[in-house]
Design a protein that fits this description.
The complex is a heterodimer. Chain A is mainly alpha-helical. Helix content of chain A is 76%, strand content 0%. Chain A is globular and about 85 Å long. By secondary structure, chain B is mainly α. Chain B is built from 13 helices and no strands. The radius of gyration of chain B is 22 Å and the shape is elongated. The chains are: A mainly alpha, B mainly alpha. At the A-B interface, α1, α5, α6, α7 and α10 of A face α5, α6, α10, α11 and α12 of B.
């Protein structure tokens, strides 16, 4: 077990290097230059500021050298400073926003799994029933609904027409005058719509995967023999089938982590939530390239680690993986 | 092929989807003829007019007709969908075919590149690239294509791995056909079925991506109308004008839904086994 985990860990090192290389190339091979807005009027002052920027960030050196300098700083966990006037270290900006994005994503995943598993199991065990048909329609509509549109509709309905929920930010402007419990309630009410939106998008996919996985397991021989033993259907499905059907979901969850984090870009910028996604959008508007590069490396590495953990978790529950070749 | 039609015709949802896909393409093509108003002509006397018989979907902040803007927006959305999927498929086919056919170190490095690209949340990549490019329809198409080829590359490689051991390929090799001839004339045509399905399902994903980018203001820029940037304006007027938010989103929903139904119909008809096995291979455009 330990050997397997170690092997996977060693294999991840070149991937992390690859992540830094891609992040660097994405930004430096694009025709526009960092710190410059195409088509903007160039004043003498802006020019001087730009020259200073160039020296400070070694933009005057050849690309491989720039990459090497950047990599050396990365190794010391120094992601550089933002180009914005406040000039704060990128790492502390990420540190401030990561908990919010993680909180949102973890709650989303929990809700999605809690709903998708029963939906998938029910529609698989009652294939072609009215419930199954309804969920199939739901899945197709879920796949086709743009998240930002759903967000707008919910804002119109719950935020404006009914006035039940706040439509932006994480706290009401007057929150500091609230009592402690009122503050928590205020915070939660700000999270309801963003989580609804993000959950809706993911739910379609996962209930589909769950249904598929369950359908495959139910056809296996050992399910037949469990039935033949005279076990109750509830036990056959709930114990024997479900456990095996859940296995692929672990991998799919880990693999879709980038998608989930990616969707926080949209959700966070619509609901004005100060998380990683919103940071990325702001950095893109402002061409703040230390923030862009830092974010790319950070999020990609995070995904890599999650994938790694999923692989190891998978090998814990399914010994075939450890011994044999990895399944693709 | 006849088996394909027989199977496809039985799938009513796929036929409806296909019909809507065709109608949308026609509407987009003749948009200048049927649009009731000039999509870019402002009118200060009709700012944010609710839907009426003169303006079925209302007007926006500049008094422009939303229906006309949506018809012109359909052209942009569909064009972006088709072209970016074309770019993604071209890159994916070239790399996937070369990797699957030649194998070895080349294959290993291409497939590691695919793994690497998939570790990045797509929207983060898109935002990073777009922030340094002058936004235009062409850059959007290119960028969506360049960040979306990995699925096709995996698919083509897998097909090539299976097909290159088949007798007709071994036979061509034994009579001395060049590898490019074998790749293009013998293997690729046999691998195109799943690729075409992936492309059909890739178009709605690209349309969703484009509309999200335009919604964020980093996609197609005004005055060009797209569904995404009408929604962006809708967000600013959300307390005053629901019609700016509702209709363009509905258009995206219907378009993406029809393409997905159509694409899945083709897939199921091409190979009923796929329906059982892999589930969906489509990713949402994020």
């Amino acid at each position: 077990m330990l050997a397997y985990a170690l092997r996977r860990l060693v294999l991840a090192i070149p991937l992390i290097l690859g992540i830094t290389l891609i992040s660097f190339m994405v930004i430096h091979l694009a025709p526009g230059e960092p710190g410059q807005t195409p088509g903007e009027m160039v004043t003498a002052e802006a020019k001087r500021a730009y020259e200073q920027l160039k020296v400070e960030y070694h933009l005057d050196r050849p690309l491989p050298e720039q990459y090497w300098i950047w990599l050396k700083r990365l190794a010391r966990l120094d992601l550089g400073r933002s180009f914005a006037p406040h000039g704060r270290p990128v790492l502390s900006m990420i540190g401030e926003r990561l908990p919010i994005t993680l909180l949102l994503n973890i709650v989303e995943i929990l809700i999605i799994v809690a709903l998708a598993v029963p939906i998938g199991v029910l529609s698989a065990t009652r294939q072609y029933s009215a419930f199954d048909k309804f969920t199939t329609i739901f899945v197709f509509v879920g796949f086709a609904t743009p998240e930002f549109w759903l967000a707008l509709l919910l804002m119109i309905l719950f935020g404006i027409q009914l006035g039940w929920l706040p439509i932006s930010g994480l706290r009401s402007p007057t929150a500091e005058y609230f009592t402690f419990w009122r503050q928590q309630l205020d915070f939660l009410s700000h999270l309801v719509m963003p989580i609804m939106v993000a959950t809706f998008g993911g739910l379609a996919g996962y209930s589909r995967y769950m249904r598929q996985s369950m359908l495959e397991v139910v056809r296996q021989d050992y399910i037949q023999s469990a039935r033949a033993k005279g076990l109750a259907e509830r036990v056959v499905i709930g114990k024997h089938a479900l456990r095996n059907a859940l296995l692929p979901i672990i991998t799919i969850l880990a693999l879709s982590l980038p998608t989930l984090i990616g969707s926080s870009v949209i959700v966070e910028s619509i609901f004005a939530i100060p998380g990683m996604g919103q940071l990325m959008v702001q950095a893109a508007y402002e061409r703040d390239y230390p923030v862009l590069m830092g974010n790319l490396v950070f999020v990609a590495t995070l995904t890599l680690i999650a994938n790694l953990m999923a692989d190891i978790a998978y090998s814990l529950v399914d010994p075939r993986i450890r011994v044999g070749r990895r399944r693709r | 092929m006849r088996g394909f039609w027989k199977a496809f015709r039985r799938n009513k949802l796929a036929i409806v989807g296909g019909a809507v896909v065709v109608c949308l393409a026609l509407l987009a093509a003749v948009a200048p003829l049927i649009a009731p108003w000039d999509p870019n002509r402002p009118d200060v006397k009709k700012i944010l007019d609710p839907p009426s018989s003169r303006h079925p979907f209302g007007t926006d902040q500049l008094g422009r007709d939303v229906l006309s803007r949506m018809l012109y927006g359909a052209r942009v959305s569909l064009a972006v969908g088709f072209v970016s999927v074309g770019i993604a498929a071209t890159i994916g086919i070239l790399l996937g075919a070369a990797a699957g056919y030649h194998g070895g170190l080349f294959e290993a490095s291409i497939m590691r590149l695919v793994d690497l690209m998939l570790v990045f949340p797509r929207f983060f990549l898109l935002l990073a690239v777009l922030s340094f490019l002058k936004p235009s329809i062409w850059t959007i198409m290119a960028v969506i294509g360049i960040t979306g080829w990995m699925g096709v590359a995996r698919l083509v490689r897998a097909e090539f791995l299976a097909l290159k051991e088949r007798e007709f390929v071994l036979w061509s090799q034994s009579v001395g056909a060049s590898s490019s001839r074998i790749i293009w004339r013998h293997i690729l045509p046999n691998a195109m079925g799943p690729v075409l399905v992936a492309m059909t399902l890739g178009i709605p994903a690209a349309i969703l991506t484009e509309s999200a980018l335009s919604f964020l203001g980093l996609g197609v820029q005004p005055p060009h109308a797209t569904w995404g940037n009408i929604l962006n304006e809708g967000k600013d007027a959300i307390e005053l004008a629901w019609w700016l938010s509702v209709y363009p989103g509905l258009a995206i929903l219907v378009t993406v839904l029809s393409y997905n139904l159509f694409g899945e119909g083709i897939r199921d008809a091409l190979d009923p086994r796929l329906r059982q096995a892999a589930g969906r291979v489509v990713s949402r455009g994020r």
